[in-house]
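Format notes (please read before filing issues)

Several people have asked whether sequences and structure tokens are stored in separate files. They are not. Every record keeps both together, in the order shown below: the sequence lines, then the token lines. Line labels are part of the format and must not be stripped during preprocessing.
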Amino acid sequence: MPAGQGWTLPFLELDGPSQMALDRWLLEQSVTSGTKSPVLRFYGWKGPWLSLGRHQVATPPHWQALADAGVIKLVRRPSGGGAVLHSGGLTYALIWPGAPRQRREAYRQTSTWLIDSFQSLGHTLEPGRSAATARLQNCFAGASAADLVDREPHNSGAHNSEAHKRIGSAQYWLHGHLLQHGEIVLQPPADLWETLFDSTPPAPLEALTQQELITALTQTLQNRWPEVHWHGQTLGDDAWQQVKSASENYRLA
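Then the structure lines:
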């Protein structure tokens, strides 16, 4: 459990490469400064973006055709995993210095934070039960224990293989410091989702606003880490220039 200072950043809506560069920049700053301070931020995307995991090499032809037609834009994530559609959702990023070195334990603790946050808003999530695999092109096509799915309301005793995945998360580690970021599906564009993935998206969460969720997620994490004194932070011009320069590393044609 961290102690000392913690930082929150204001909600930002930027293009995909800038968001990915900022997540990586915050992680690098955590490492180079030697700080034990966690950083939490939430963000949105300007237009529909499809982010690909750092190890995804081949792009399906129909994804590339949609990108060429301007329907979507493609960006590379610093983290692993399959492709994620960012549209109508909320993205979170947590920089966690000194996180448990066992990835399963880090995922377990962050999953508890996310589950408790949704529970405070009257929505029940639970870990997925599929085996983790790096082969899925679509991140939301499967749900391992690192992912969170909607609990089936009238079938609590059955296997939840048909439950819709609500949150897909991915990690990137740098010298013992963890970047975990993930997409929370709120109002997915059904037509675009089906075109990209040939599957039905999770059901919209009609009664849950983005701001309500941000407030719940922030408050729950602060309650879980009472030793951390949280402060708001904004980035200066020099930081933004570094992020802008690094953003080209994540841009895909």
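For reference, the curators noted about this record: The longest strand covers residues 165-174. The helical segments are 16-33, 61-68, 103-120, 190-197, 210-224, 237-247.
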